[in-house]
């Protein structure tokens, strides 16, 4: 009799859980048509609104590999320097120790790359496609030198924001690499350290950097918001958690002291359940951000529903922004993503605008063998545009050799990928 009762209770609990999950999955966010405008992008309830107070859905792309080159799509390599694995931090050190370069020349080459890889034409192209947003990843190394802001710290970011303004785009400013690295991943610019959380100096430097950014862009309505930390981990190779959110709270309050208006993006890495209960912090005007790369045997729709279920289960009554995502060579999955994002009112920026495919064509296992074997057309489609240029060894090459490679990184030398076509087809459909 006891076991019958226990069995009935368990069955009831399971049924309640199933019903609860079904209710969460079926629940669709409400779409109030308008709110009172503030001049800035703002979060109210579960949606974003533009400066006039109209419902807003950010749709765009990342400018990855621009401020921070990543080794798997980089134009640069570092030969036998240090570990031989390129990162932003290691690449800068390699150039400074290159016997063919002076410190001034190394700086000139970095600026040449920044001017070449993304130009005005690229912002025009994004707008021409019909997108309305660009996420711009950068690191502290782009803005600081020897622990202090460079005199020209914001020169290139200001230019990017000005280009967004000119072509009717929103800019999402994304700190991809914090002092000490928030994840010890190469895309933070430094894969040698995990030394942000608990390091008083690095925590203070990152807070000071965000204070400077917020003060500089206060009042700039082209900036949609601040993405405080890209893909934070609680430990190397361990997803995020309370330690990340407690530090987010410190950054949030630092930003708010300088800028009360801009939207703030809070990332859960990798799933919503790796977050923390938001009511403990009392944040306002925030948007939860997730990155979706479905490298599982489950369908794309199942993956998207999983994120929605966890977001609801955590009680996050905020807008959702998919700051990074890609569906590789599978057009059906691209269209599934587009349709689901629109249905939920989620904002999104795909990864990424342009890549250099040369490295991952040489060593497919380096990036992800799964993608090659499961894509319909065996193409990665990481970028809308794809260069195919041999990397230049910046630890040994001459100034002229590096300059030639960097200058050739312009988009006119890149091929359009299927990802461009998928985006084009989707955006044309939304205009009909």
TrEMBL record:
Record organism: Candidatus Borkfalkia faecavium
GO MF annotations in UniProt: beta-glucosidase activity
Keyword vocabulary terms for this entry: Glycosidase, Hydrolase
Domain of life of the organism encoding this protein: Bacteria
Domain Glycoside hydrolase family: 109-355
Residue ranges of the TM segments: none
GO terms of biological process kind: glucan catabolic process
Classification via InterPro entries: GH, Glyco_hydro_5, Glycosyl_hydrolase_5
Protein known as: Cellulase family glycosylhydrolase
Pfam families: Cellulase (PF00150)
Family: Belongs to the glycosyl hydrolase 5 (cellulase A) family.
Keyword Hydrolase set for record: yes
GO CC terms: cell surface; extracellular region
């Amino acid at each position: 009799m006891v076991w019958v009762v226990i069995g009935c209770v368990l069955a009831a609990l399971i049924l309640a859980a199933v019903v609860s999950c079904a209710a969460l999955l079926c629940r669709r966010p409400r779409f109030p048509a308008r709110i009172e405008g503030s001049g800035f992008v703002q979060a109210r309830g579960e949606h974003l609104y533009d400066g006039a107070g109209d419902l807003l859905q950010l749709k765009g792309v990342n400018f990855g590999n621009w401020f921070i080159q990543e080794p798997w799509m980089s134009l640069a390599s570092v030969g036998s320097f240090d570990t031989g694995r390129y990162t932003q931090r290691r690449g800068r050190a390699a150039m400074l120790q290159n016997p063919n370069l002076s410190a001034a020349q190394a700086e000139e080459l970095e600026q040449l790359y920044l001017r070449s890889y993304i130009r005005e034409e690229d912002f025009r192209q994004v707008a021409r496609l019909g997108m309305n947003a660009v996420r711009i990843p950068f690191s502290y190394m782009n803005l600081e030198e020897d622990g202090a802001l460079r005199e020209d710290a914001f020169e290139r970011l200001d230019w990017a924001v000005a280009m967004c303004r000119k072509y009717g785009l929103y800019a999402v400013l994304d700190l991809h690499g914090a002092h000490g690295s928030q994840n010890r991943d190469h895309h933070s610019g430094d894969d040698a350290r995990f030394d942000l959380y608990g390091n008083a100096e690095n925590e203070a430097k990152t807070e000071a950097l965000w204070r400077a950014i917020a003060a500089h862009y206060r009042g700039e309505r082209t900036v949609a918001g601040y993405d405080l930390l890209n893909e934070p981990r609680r430990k190397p190779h361990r997803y995020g958690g309370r330690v990340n959110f407690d530090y987010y709270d410190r950054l949030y309050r630092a930003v708010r002291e300088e800028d009360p208006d801009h939207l703030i993006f809070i990332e859960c890495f990798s799933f919503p359940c790796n977050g923390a209960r938001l009511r403990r912090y009392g944040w306002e005007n925030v948007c939860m951000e997730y990155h979706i790369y479905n490298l599982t045997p489950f369908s794309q729709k199942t993956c998207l529903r999983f994120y929605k279920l966890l977001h609801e289960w955590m009680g996050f009554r905020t807008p959702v922004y998919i700051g990074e995502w890609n569906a590789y060579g599978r057009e059906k999955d691209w269209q599934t993503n587009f349709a689901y994002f629109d249905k939920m009112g989620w904002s999104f920026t795909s990864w990424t605008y342009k890549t250099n495919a040369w490295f991952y064509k040489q060593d497919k296992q380096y990036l992800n063998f799964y993608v090659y074997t499961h894509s319909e057309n065996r193409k990665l489609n990481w970028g809308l545009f794809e260069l195919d240029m041999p990397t230049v060894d910046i630890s040994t090459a001459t100034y002229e050799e590096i300059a030639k490679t960097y200058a050739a990184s312009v988009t006119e030398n890149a091929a359009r990928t299927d990802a461009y076509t998928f985006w084009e087809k989707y955006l044309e459909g939304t205009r009909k």
